[in-house]
Design brief:
By secondary structure, chain A is of the alpha/beta class. Chain A contains seven helices and twelve strands. A seven-stranded mixed beta sheet of chain A has the order 1-9-8-5-4-2-3. Chain A has a three-stranded antiparallel beta sheet with strand order 7-6-10. Chain A has a two-stranded antiparallel sheet with strand order 11-12. In chain A, strand 6 and strand 7 form a beta hairpin. In chain B, the strands form two sheets. In chain B, strands 6-7-8-3-9-10 form a six-stranded mixed beta sheet, sandwiched between helices. A four-stranded antiparallel beta sheet of chain B has the order 2-1-4-5, covered by helices on one side. By secondary structure, chain B is of the alpha/beta class. Classes of the chains: A alpha/beta, B alpha/beta. Chains A and B meet through helix 5 of A and helix 3, helix 5 and helix 6 of B.
């Protein structure tokens, strides 16, 4: 798709240049202080809060004409949120889009990190609903900021303690708190804790945007990311004990799909691109795969 | 007062503390020394500046005049105004305790009793669940809370239990100084008696220093070694508790003592 095909009324990638500069400055600061939540002047976007307005703004700010964009929602490329955001950038930026993880240079994600390992020339953009891991534990925002500033994170363990006291194990399965670069405790957005180890020493830059909460934070490439735990209750990844019914993968994160009202269910990879690649029905001759070739 | 005699250096020194809210003077020129193991009661009627004094001591409010000195664990007495915020907060959650009149202010009502007691331990770096739980269980037993209720939220506790939980939560890091704001306020008399008994024991066993703000002279008589009577933001009389209460010198103190109902 060429630039001429984009909607003429919009600046490249929807936001005006000054706004993009403002967001880039916030991103630079976030990269310089790994895990620190940088406030930014979040804009109204033409989609409701909760649909990824933060992630969309970060993507808009970093996108160039040569970038190849992939958008995933709960691991899938073909769910509503992914499709509409992909169309949004096709229309406003005219960039190439793909579903192939390896071909993408910018991947905007809602709640998953792709199974395929990321490389140094890729940027992963997370959509974040609630950026502060201390939210709900400490009601005052002034106080949580002070706690971050002084690295007072005892309260984070209170949450994990409660889990063990109530369930016998750490029952937090998503938005599992991590410590970034031995300093800031960070909410990795509601990704399953299965994905937490992928953030550690990742080759790609990871950016987090929260539109409603007006915060941007980042994990620079090859940064030490540790999931919080107790000595006698160490962090454990969680996945359904099963194999993907479509591709037979035993190592990927699985979605459970109820298939009738008699209790039948099947497990399939949550990462659709990974699953398709394993099934071998991905067209390997055309990389990146274009939007037009879907359907 | 033999404890004070043994300790050459006071634990806490207040020097000329003053605080005004606009033209309203809440506290004027309050000075005292508190030694290790000593319990001091601050009494007076509502609006006499007791609570403001406690807020000044715990640095929840900034004093207009005067300073607060504290002997740190390393034995060096330092002006608290010279400490950084991180140091102060560390001090406040390890070496100090603060018992609020309303336990809901001092507790986390949304997490279990065990987590409330364990929070300070986790804040100073404890990372072993089994150890934390063991200490929490021990402390619940010490403050006479049924240990079977360790996983219940304080919202399900009675008023007396909440206050005891708040005390356990504060004492778990073995602080040397505890500031209490009307610890028995709002409790019925039999619960009060039990709480006072518990406090008296803990203070004696742990050799705590404490400043207790109260309007209840019975609490002062039961718990404190020394007493300070405040009126209109100023200290009008101070001395040994039994001396002041049995032989009050100031007319206002005489009034206070004589207004206790005798059943």
């Amino acid at each position: 798709m060429s630039a001429a095909e984009t909607a003429p009324a919009y600046n490249f990638a929807y936001l005006d240049e000054q706004t993009k500069r403002m967001i880039r400055r916030a991103i630079l600061k976030a990269v310089a202080i790994p895990g620190y939540q940088v406030p930014f002047a979040s804009r109204e976007m033409p989609m409701p809060y909760g649909w990824g307005t933060g992630g969309v703004q970060v993507t808009a700010a970093i996108l160039g004409p040569d970038d190849v964009l992939k958008v995933i929602d709960q691991g899938a490329d073909d769910t509503t949120n992914a499709v509409s955001i992909r169309k949004f950038f096709q229309k406003t930026a005219g960039v190439e889009t793909t579903t192939d993880t390896r071909a993408a240079t910018v991947i905007q994600t809602r709640h998953r990190i792709p199974e395929t390992p990321l490389s140094a020339n890729q940027i992963l953009v997370f959509q974040v609903p609630i950026p502060d891991p201390l939210r709900y534990l400490e009601p005052r925002e002034t106080e949580t900021r002070r706690m971050h500033a002084l690295a007072e994170y005892g309260l984070m363990h209170v949450k994990l303690y409660e889990d063990i006291a109530r369930h016998g194990h750490i029952a937090t399965t998503y938005a599992y708190p991590v410590k970034v670069d031995d300093r800031y405790v960070m909410d990795p957005s509601p990704t399953p804790k299965f994905d937490n180890p992928k953030m550690d020493d990742c080759a790609a830059l990871q950016l987090f945007g929260a539109g409603r909460e007006k915060r941007i934070y980042a994990i620079p490439p090859h940064t030490h990311v540790v999931s919080l735990d107790f000595d006698d209750h160490p962090f454990e990844r969680y996945r359904h004990n099963g194999t993907c019914a479509l591709c037979g993968a035993r190592d990927s994160y699985l979605d459970e799909i109820v298939t009738d009202d008699r209790g039948s269910r099947m497990f399939v990879c949550s990462d659709t691109d990974y699953c398709e690649g394993r099934r071998g029905d991905r067209d390997e001759s055309v990389t990146p795969r274009h939007e037009a070739q879907r359907s | 007062m033999n404890i004070a005699a043994r300790e050459p250096q006071p634990l806490l020194i207040a020097e000329g503390l003053g605080k005004s809210f606009g033209r309203q003077v809440a506290c004027r020129d309050v000075s005292f020394e508190l030694h290790e193991g000593e319990v001091m009661a601050v009494v007076g009627e509502s609006g006499s500046g007791k609570s403001t004094l406690l807020r000044l001591l715990s640095l929840q409010a900034e004093a207009d005049a005067g300073r607060v000195l504290y002997r740190m664990r390393d034995g060096i007495t330092r002006d608290l105004a010279t400490l950084g915020e991180a140091e102060l907060r560390f001090l406040a959650r390890t070496d100090w305790g603060f018992v609020h009149q309303d336990p809901a202010l001092g507790l986390r009502m949304a997490v279990s009793g065990g987590a409330n007691v364990g929070e300070r331990l986790m804040a100073v770096g404890w990372r072993h669940y089994g150890d934390i739980r063991q200490v929490a269980t021990d402390w619940l037993a010490r403050v006479e809370i049924d240990t079977a209720r360790i996983d219940d939220r304080p919202a399900t506790y009675s008023g007396g239990m909440r206050q005891r939980l708040q005390i356990a939560r504060n004492l778990v890091t073995q602080p040397r100084l505890v500031l209490m704001d009307e610890p028995t306020g709002g409790l019925d008399v039999s619960v009060q008696a039990r709480l006072l008994d518990l406090l008296r024991n803990l203070v004696a066993v742990l050799k705590l220093s404490a400043v207790i703000v109260t309007h209840d002279l019975a609490v002062a008589r039961l718990l404190s070694h020394r007493i300070m009577v405040m009126k209109g933001g100023e200290v009008i009389e101070s001395g040994l508790t039994d001396q002041v209460l049995d032989d009050p010198r100031e007319p206002y103190t005489q009034l206070l003592v004589s207004s206790i109902l005798q059943p």
